[in-house]
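Sample 3 of the quickstart, ligand phosphoenolpyruvate:
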Amino acid sequence: SETRTPLMAGNWKMNLNHLEAIAHVQKLAFALADKDYEAVEVAVLPPFTDLRSVQTLVDGDKLKIKYGAQDVSAHDSGAYTGEISGPMLAKLKCTYVAIGHSERRQYHDETDEIVNAKVKAAFKHGLTPIMCVGEGLEVRKAGNQVAHTLAQVEGGLKDVPAEQAESVVIAYEPVWAIGTGEVATPEDAQEVCGAIRDSLAKLYSPELAQKVRIQYGGSVKSGNVAAIMAQPDVDGALVGGAALDADEFVKIVRFRD
Ligand code: PEP
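Result:
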């Protein structure tokens, strides 16, 4: 839509150490230094150990690139060995945090209840959640992708007030398209992203639904991003593998060129 600023976010997963992160963000900043990209918001989601380095670079050079984490604890502090809290991410001036990525759901048993608690923790500390939803192959084969994904949206946003929900980012990522090279067709992406927006209109209001940005994720590359972005309810992309190559990610960000 014309009214929603597209958000292109690179999910680095468990790749790039803090030195590699600095080199990568410098490349992005250099390639995006002209005015062209101002109509698109660009964010990177590096591993936790990179965030301080990225913050220093972005702050020091006044870069427009935003950054965030790939997960956050539902708790503010305490005996949760290995976890990273919302206040810690807020202190590092993170803008975004991915929540409920399919790899977290799959390898760390994150349920919609956990996702919901983390979404609330993010908002509590001024972080914008990128809440990830999407069906696996079996669900897709059975034709239940819309119902499955909407249940995740509803579960993840349970008891989240409209003042917060209006700034959530929802990433629709069909699991069968993540890291597989098998991208959803633009029509597949639109079907579910459109259904997510309709469901936000029912859960909250049509006005709120028009504000929320809905990303598509799953094997997005420079060669397929424009067709996906042309869909009316797709407002950006969450990019995994292709975001590790700075040149390729820049081409994705410049999908309108
Ligand atoms: C992701 O991890 O969010 C993702 C979409 O990965 P890929 O682009 O590699 O499919």
